[in-house]
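Hi F.,

I've been meaning to write this up properly since the lab meeting, where we talked about keeping a consistent format for the predictions we share between groups. The idea is simple: the sequence comes first, exactly as it goes in, then the structure tokens exactly as they come out, then a line or two of notes. No screenshots and no reformatting. I'm using this chain as the first example so we have something concrete to point to.
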Amino acid sequence: MARGFLLLFFVTVCFSCAFCRVDSRETTPYGIWTGGNITPRNKEYVRGRFIWRKWRELEPQKGIWTWDIVDERINQAVEAGKYVGFVVYAGPDSPDWIYDNGVPKVTTPDKINVRGGSHKARFPYYPYYLDPDYRKYWFNEIRIVADWIDSLPETKREKVLFVQTAEGTTDDEGPYKGVPYDEKYRFCDEHGNGVAWVELKKEAWKIYHEKYSSMNPPIQLMVNPGNMLQYESILDTISPCAWKKSGSPGHIYQFNGEKSYINARKNTIWNRCSNGEYRRFRSEFDEMDNGWFKENSVRNMYWLCAYNLFYGLDILFIVGNAVSDPRFRESYDFFNKYAGQKDPSEAVGAFTAMKDVLDAADTLRFPESKYGEATDMNKARFEAIAKEYEKFGAHNGDIDHAVGGPMNNRRSKSSNDVGFDLVPGNYELFLNQIDANATSQGWWNVGPDDQPYGRFARSFDVKNNKNKMYFVLDKNFFAKKHDKTVEVRVVYLDEGNGKWALEYVGEDGSLKIARIITNKNSGRWKEMKVEIADAAFRANGPKGSDLVLSNESMEDTKFHMIELTRKNCN
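Output, unedited:
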């Protein structure tokens, strides 16, 4: 099966019903993945299975390989019609026989991880990575595993979507968790900075690339470019179109440093590689036991998915039983609908999930003269900003973990609405709100807790003459598809008795009413859907808009989302 087919299949699958969308009954490469079995509880929406094994399990004795434990998992995924990603962990997961054959053991002090546990309990010792024997044994493992994958029967082989490299502790960037006791083994820091370590990685990547790119068809590599992208240029030279692991986005949304993190990666994510295809990115979510997530898991899973679509993540690997939790089905379906879609001309739809952002790094909106010095550790500044927007639902539930870096943010016992160096505005995909803060009011933590939408919202603001919200579709959305019939979905909080309208721009630039809604004060989030067949979608309306939400009363309706879906895929 051609690899290009795998990459394009996702955006060409349609329901037999009126509007184009991804069929949850079909298995497509991108979307929600699991590390466990495909079961009746998750089969409809899980796209693939990420299989990881330890080298010590595959080669428990030197030269004696056992594949049953891998083959069983591949068979289970393939029989369910799903894709497979595969990684073999080396480093501290290497077999003990390497030490009997001369590889030195390296030990480190206990180091507290993000969940409060000890890394040493998990990794009692490590190999000395620079030892010539370790290098020989490890490189041989890489080649043997590649040959085995290439020898799989076609029905299995064609479902292997990618193989991920793993050089250090699991697939992290560094060799050790903690600093080795013995000074002679300190050739690198925990973050993978060290000349000798980088050179070893380069050797390994060359072997990976050589083995998997020469297969027929080739299998895509996935590599960790480093949290600071310190290996990016090296990696792009060795394997120019390798897929990449993204760390933070899969774990948490609205984390400190988010803006810089995204800006450093957006060109790589959203532009085609030299082979004409998009690189693909994966991350994993394993925060189910952390306080901020448990505070309202339904909301948080939904907004995590929305954020990762905005970021451009292709595969979200859900660790553990949460992948089969029916409470998250709407979130997973939403992610699956849009995951992998990087070209607006091929996308099934577009959306904007509305939110304001309280960024303590923004000294224009929050002057230091009023709110205090703009640093990521200034709790007083974070609290002052939250206080300003308290009447709109904003708060800092755990100020000690609102500050600092993303690893500290992940340990938060409650959600925080003020952060530092955050992505401004809505989480959007191919549909953008125009002058959002100038035309609408942001809200936080609104609506019923059992519905996923209310973590953020925007509303009209009659007192400040904000009665129209303007939206523009990506200019390339209809570049290849000429049928402009769409379904527009608006999710709103049915609060009070306000009246509002969805308007669209016709060919002559005038506004037309698609539908008028009068709220019934149920207190629930509701959705309105309407088909539009005669919109221009040429950004020729007020403020360069295509769609408008218009207030038709003196009450301020709150909104979560406006979403547009094509009628036809082709």
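Notes:
The mean pLDDT is 92.
The longest strand covers residues 558-566.

If this format works for you, I'll send the rest the same way.

G.
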